[in-house]
Amino acid sequence: MIRQGAIKYGLVVLLVAMVLVFSYLQPAFGSMRNSFIILQSVSIVAILALGVTATLAVDGFDLSIGATAALAMMTSSYVLVVLDGGTLAAVVAALGVGVLVGLLNGFLTVQMRIPDLLATLGVMFLLLGLQLIPTEGRSIAAGMILGDGGSAPGRFSAAFLALGRTRLFGVVPVPVVIMLVLALITWLFLERSRFGRLFYAIGGNRSAAWLAGANVSAYRYGAYVISGVYASIGGILLAARMGRGDVSSGNSLLMDAVAAALVGFAVLGAARPNALGAVVGALFVGVLLNGLTMLNAPYYTQDFIKGAVLVVALMFTFGLAKRT
Amino acid sequence: MELQDTTKAFGPHQVLKGVNLRLPAGQVTALMGANGAGKSTLVKVLCGVHRADAGNLLLDGRPVVFQDPRQANAAGIVTVHQQINDNVVLSLTVAENLLLDRLSDGRLGGLLGRKRLAEQAGPLAEAVGLNVPMDTQVAALGQAERQLLAIARALAHQPRLLILDEPTSTLSDAEAERLFVLVERLRARGTGVLYISHRLSDIRRLADRVVALRDGVIVLEQETPDLPRAVQAMLGHGLGEASHEYRRGGRERFRLQQARLVAGAPPFYLSLREGEITVATGLLSSGGMGLLQAIYGLAPLAAGTMYKGGKPWRPRSPAEAIAGGVFMVQEDRARAGIIPGFSLRHNLSLPFLSHLSRLGMIDRRREAERGKHSLDQAGVVYRSDRQPMSALSGGNQQKLMLARWLQQPCELLLLAEPFQGVDIGARRDIARLLRRTADERATLVVCTDLEEALELADRLLVFNHHRLVGDHRGEQLNMEQVLQQIAALPEHIDEELR
């Protein structure tokens, strides 16, 4: 009984306990303002984690999400600044990049039969390199000097920047709203729709799902397209928040998002990739890091803490569950 | 070597029910048994992978107990397993494979010169007539050479008893002949051989003695092989208990014309009618399963045309087959049927989610209601339909797999070995359920076990070497003839069909 309780509620209890302890030690932690700072800081990671969750559900694994987000960020910045395009063009171009990357990953894993981890690792390197080529390795900002000596004609439009910086009703940051909406859609899709059910069926036993009539290839493609699109949404929000296309800012996204998705396995004893878990997982890491920072923990301990959280959560999921 | 009253159970499932088996030196003992008879468990007990629950293992008349395969090896009992690639390491060279056992126990020391390896391995390869360079990667070898390599490795232990599990299943005739010559040489040297195979031609060629295993018991031991009788013993013959009312089919639902399961076989015609349960039997991989796979869109026929309701039928995937009203209950439900993380309810509804959904969203109340109804109809015993599949016994799991495909009406229901890992009570239930629902569709079943086949069949087809060699009505069954057709040797089949 205790073990089952620990498996099911362990992580949620830990999250609540953490919030209580931090609020007690540092009253500013529990303020409305800080709560939204935490939410805002985890929203992009959570969106990427939702995308990985879709690929994990079909027993795939998208390692290219960080690079896809970075490429989407550079693409939207490039459209706005270098091509002097509008907000809509920038967003559509970035989303298009996400779709294309998803199709590429699907092609490599389904058609070429490359193991998911290897295929998406390859694509990750490919994209990290690709995003440097159009700007000759430089970051994109308004007024930057182009290769032909002239300066870039465009700038980040107010509407585009609003995506990352405005607060709904003056309180809730737009990225948080987008994250919550995507979380709800993903949850409905995975838990309540027949497509999601087939995602999990394929992840659980691919050949049995195929023999029961599931179009396995199409669903695996679909999972990577979802993941690519979510990553590019993350990239757009990142560009809007920073107001520039920074060549190195996608770096930590991959590991944070993967960690969040994997921590999510342990939420409410799901023992499988799930949308709620991915968000709670991202939140868990965000709360821990924010709280420790407010308590003056040095920044360089952050990666170690994230790693420790991931390992403990995986123990909850696999180590404890296996023996029941 | 001898086994006395050996039993072995896995959970509630009694696999070996008191096996007595004598394996004399210098003789080839052939072991025959249908799917699930307990052959592989028997082998694993002999070679130390499993320990028997009860019974004695005698070596030269003295009882021995093996804790693990290594001890069995040391006592001279060496096994070449069915999957050739389990016996060799593909990424290593021939020499490294031959010396693997010595490498892992450290007898060769830590530093290995290529030359020294070749010197050590050379004689081992020579002993089995394996003539390939010692530094060839095993991945570059053909199946026969890998098989010889595996045997060479086995012989390096200087076995007193060599167990060969289906050694020719992936070999061509010429390759198999090389193996036979080797086995004969071993026999002449006084090695005992336990030869497990369903290939009658192998057994006729090699066996000094034949034993048949059925349902965990040795049912026949022959000092001079008589193959038709051995086949009968292995497949069972209990007509009496399985008799039922035989029904004649109504309207034709499905037809095959000029069909060939393999190139070069004579073509056959087959009409499947509603209300009638047609069972295809024959030895393992004799063609029945190939027929089901062709109909379900998993592999094309070698030649011929299929018609469903008068229209040509050529599905390219299970999804297309299902959409056209052809459903299939798979053999080996753990691998090909069950989604392990899913509850009973979700496993049940899997193929028909679109019927339960609106705008893509599953109507969960309807799913639950229909699921419970189906489970009750099929007589599945369960506590909650939210339980995982592992909570059910084998028989109940199989009932659920059948219930899955009875949820929607179909033109043709295919079943592959529906009684695999199912106890006798559940078997009766499943047969009754199939018969009760048979009216609105055609039903085609593949059963290797004759007794199981007869329990279901209104009509019995016999396949042998991918040829349809017999088509019998249930009420006018001539068992003698059926057994002959099952056991006929390949060289005689085509003559008789002409």
Automatic annotation (TrEMBL), chain A:
<protein>
    <submittedName>
        <fullName>ABC transporter permease</fullName>
    </submittedName>
</protein>
<keyword id="KW-1003">Cell membrane</keyword>
<feature type="transmembrane region" description="Helical">
    <location>
        <begin position="304"/>
        <end position="321"/>
    </location>
</feature>
<keyword id="KW-0812">Transmembrane</keyword>
<feature type="transmembrane region" description="Helical">
    <location>
        <begin position="221"/>
        <end position="240"/>
    </location>
</feature>
<feature type="transmembrane region" description="Helical">
    <location>
        <begin position="252"/>
        <end position="271"/>
    </location>
</feature>
<keyword id="KW-1133">Transmembrane helix</keyword>
<feature type="transmembrane region" description="Helical">
    <location>
        <begin position="37"/>
        <end position="58"/>
    </location>
</feature>
<feature type="transmembrane region" description="Helical">
    <location>
        <begin position="168"/>
        <end position="190"/>
    </location>
</feature>
<dbReference type="Pfam" id="PF02653">
    <property type="entry name" value="BPD_transp_2"/>
</dbReference>
<feature type="transmembrane region" description="Helical">
    <location>
        <begin position="6"/>
        <end position="25"/>
    </location>
</feature>
<keyword id="KW-0472">Membrane</keyword>
<feature type="transmembrane region" description="Helical">
    <location>
        <begin position="116"/>
        <end position="134"/>
    </location>
</feature>
<dbReference type="InterPro" id="IPR001851">
    <property type="entry name" value="ABC_transp_permease"/>
</dbReference>
<feature type="transmembrane region" description="Helical">
    <location>
        <begin position="277"/>
        <end position="297"/>
    </location>
</feature>
<feature type="transmembrane region" description="Helical">
    <location>
        <begin position="78"/>
        <end position="104"/>
    </location>
</feature>
<comment type="similarity">
    <text>Belongs to the binding-protein-dependent transport system permease family. AraH/RbsC subfamily.</text>
</comment>
UniProtKB/TrEMBL annotation, chain B:
<keyword id="KW-0067">ATP-binding</keyword>
<dbReference type="Pfam" id="PF00005">
    <property type="entry name" value="ABC_tran"/>
</dbReference>
<protein>
    <submittedName>
        <fullName>Sugar ABC transporter ATP-binding protein</fullName>
    </submittedName>
</protein>
<dbReference type="InterPro" id="IPR003593">
    <property type="entry name" value="AAA+_ATPase"/>
</dbReference>
<keyword id="KW-0547">Nucleotide-binding</keyword>
<feature type="domain" description="ABC transporter">
    <location>
        <begin position="1"/>
        <end position="240"/>
    </location>
</feature>
<dbReference type="InterPro" id="IPR050107">
    <property type="entry name" value="ABC_carbohydrate_import_ATPase"/>
</dbReference>
<dbReference type="InterPro" id="IPR003439">
    <property type="entry name" value="ABC_transporter-like_ATP-bd"/>
</dbReference>
<feature type="domain" description="ABC transporter">
    <location>
        <begin position="246"/>
        <end position="490"/>
    </location>
</feature>
<keyword id="KW-0677">Repeat</keyword>
<dbReference type="InterPro" id="IPR027417">
    <property type="entry name" value="P-loop_NTPase"/>
</dbReference>
<dbReference type="GO" id="GO:0005524">
    <property type="term" value="F:ATP binding"/>
</dbReference>
<dbReference type="InterPro" id="IPR017871">
    <property type="entry name" value="ABC_transporter-like_CS"/>
</dbReference>
<keyword id="KW-0813">Transport</keyword>
